[in-house]
């Protein structure tokens, strides 16, 4: 391989480019017809009643926390094996993230660990569909119902995945998506929240644009004229542009194709690695419902003479730009300063020591997949005990 292979990458074609160019030539660059159309397409695709587009996935999580009414003194339960944004959003609204340990098969948040962490202050659960594999949503929704909690599913990895035949985005109280370029479809930067609740939907719309409304029916004071608007709460500017939304509409048409390719490539990896000593392939659900955002292997370091770091560096030297998803969120100095201690989630911490993310994206070429398989195998073969 004379070029290096990243762990993830977007796929932009001429149709995507044309869609963006068309917006640039139109009257609206932001909050025009394309944002509403993108939202409608997301509603159709996920089966949710409402979709609200945001400037990025983190803004979507922040807005969902606001809409859920999470605030000062509340606790929000999430997983440590995620990107920091899944926990930061609780901090944004003055709440405290509480980390629950993971399941040893799917690496997703363990519902029984959630139950252990519930206190009278718990307000919400933010499960993450890690790698694209949906969480145990039935059990999580059941726990939420029992303790009167709101479920905000972080589906940054799992757009297009299904859970028991239902599309992700239609199941939790609110579901958040990201359209960052490494995610399955992209708008450059972008995000969305889907929900079936009109109440949440209206709050999300308010929050996205400064807490301002022009809707006469919603005004607190008297309507003074056509120019009139009211700021009723402290919102933000978290809007997506029409330029980005046009790209999103175009990308969404290709989502199923992208996922099918990802599933096919993940299967090739798993078939190749399943009988190899020293490597543990990722969970595969019986119904094959994962969106396969990332392909995460565990190194069985007891069977190898090298550790994860050496393995990672050997891949790197051979042109495979692997990654590690994720460093437990509370290992970060910011969280350590807030008082979170190592040892909090032993399974997550043990997993972190052994994982590597191999390249997986729809535009991978067969020769690249073969190269990743051969290279990984040869590193394993030369470094077994
Ligand atoms: C990417 C990601 C986010 C944040 O999305 P942005 O669009 O980058 O803000 C949140 N949670 C998870 C699990 C992610 O992978």
Sum this structure up briefly:
With 385 residues, this protein is of the alpha/beta class.
Overview of the structural elements:
The strands form five sheets. Strands 2-10-9-6-5-3-4 form a seven-stranded mixed β-sheet, sandwiched between helices. The protein has a three-stranded antiparallel β-sheet with strand order 13-14-16. The chain is globular and about 80 Å long. 37% of the residues lie in helices and 15% in strands. The mean pLDDT is 97. It has two domains: 5-252, Type I PLP-dependent aspartate aminotransferase-like (Major domain) (Aspartate Aminotransferase, domain 2); 255-382, Aspartate Aminotransferase, domain 1. With 385 residues, it is an alpha/beta fold. The protein starts with a strand and ends with a helix. The protein has helices spanning 14-24, 33-46, 57-67, 85-92, 111-117, 137-147, 198-208, 242-252, 255-273, 308-317, 333-337, 346-354, 366-382; strands at 5-6, 50-54, 75-78, 96-99, 122-126, 150-154, 162-163, 166-167, 174-178, 191-195, 212-213, 230-231, 279-280, 295-299, 320-321, 355-358. Residues 56-58, 82-83, 85-86, 128, 154, 156-157, 178, 180, 191 line the site of pyridoxal-5'-phosphate. One of its GO terms (molecular function) is transaminase activity.
């Amino acid at each position: 391989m004379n070029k290096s292979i990243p762990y993830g990458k977007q796929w932009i074609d001429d149709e995507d480019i044309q869609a963006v160019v068309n917006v640039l030539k139109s009257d609206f660059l932001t909050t025009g017809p394309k944002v509403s159309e993108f939202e409608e397409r997301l509603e159709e695709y996920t089966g949710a009643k409402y979709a609200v587009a945001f400037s990025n996935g983190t803004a979507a999580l922040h807005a969902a926390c606001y809409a859920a009414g999470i605030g000062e003194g509340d606790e929000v339960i999430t997983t440590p094996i995620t990107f920091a944004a899944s926990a930061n959003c609780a901090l944004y609204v003055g709440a405290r993230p509480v980390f629950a340990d993971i399941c040893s098969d799917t690496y997703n948040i363990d519902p029984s660990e959630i139950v252990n962490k519930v206190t009278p202050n718990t307000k919400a659960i933010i499960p993450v569909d890690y790698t694209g594999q949906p969480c145990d949503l039935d059990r999580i929704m059941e726990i939420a119902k029992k303790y009167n909690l709101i479920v905000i599913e972080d589906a940054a990895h799992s757009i297009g995945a299904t859970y028991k035949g239902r599309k992700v985005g239609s199941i939790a109280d609110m579901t958040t998506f990201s359209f960052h370029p490494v995610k399955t479809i992209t708008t450059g930067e972008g995000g969305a929240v889907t929900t079936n609740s009109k109440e949440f939907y209206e709050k999300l719309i308010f929050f996205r644009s400064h807490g301002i409304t022009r809707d006469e029916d919603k005004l607190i004071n008297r309507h003074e004229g056509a120019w009139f608007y009211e700021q009723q709460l402290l919102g933000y500017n978290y809007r997506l542009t029409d330029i980005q939304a046009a790209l999103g509409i175009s990308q969404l048409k290709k989502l199923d194709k992208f996922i099918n390719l990802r599933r096919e490539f993940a299967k090739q990896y798993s078939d190749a690695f399943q009988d190899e000593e020293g490597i543990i392939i990722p969970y595969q659900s019986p119904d094959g419902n994962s969106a396969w955002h990332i392909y995460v292997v565990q190194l069985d370091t007891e069977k190898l003479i090298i550790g994860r770091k050496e393995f990672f560096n050997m891949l790197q030297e051979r042109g495979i730009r692997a990654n590690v998803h994720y460093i437990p969120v509370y290992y970060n100095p910011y969280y350590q300063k807030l008082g979170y201690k190592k040892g909090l989630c032993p399974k997550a911490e043990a997993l972190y020591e052994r994982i590597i993310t191999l390249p997986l994206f729809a535009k991978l070429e067969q020769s690249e997949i073969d190269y990743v398989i051969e290279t990984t195998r040869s590193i394993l073969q030369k470094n077994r005990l």
